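thread: overnight batch results

M.L. [08:02]
morning all. the overnight job finished for the chain we discussed friday. pasting input first so we're all looking at the same thing
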Amino acid sequence: MPVMDGMEATRAIRKLERDQKQTPSLIIALTSLGSAASQEEAFSNGMNIFLTKPVRFNDLRQILNDWTTRADMQSRRT
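M.L. [08:03]
and the structure it wrote out:
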């Protein structure tokens, strides 16, 4: 990424969400770095899911469908 990397972007997004009291967005790390340290860094910076490339499209589709279903259910409760 030319201006900031994914970790920095995630921190900025999470700060904006907190400052504006917004519902947190789903942030998925798609990376070729599969180490435990990379995964821990992603989660500690606020990413929700960590996927190592190559990613199967059907796996990603299921993650997004599950997230959307949960978000829909939560919005109906409020």
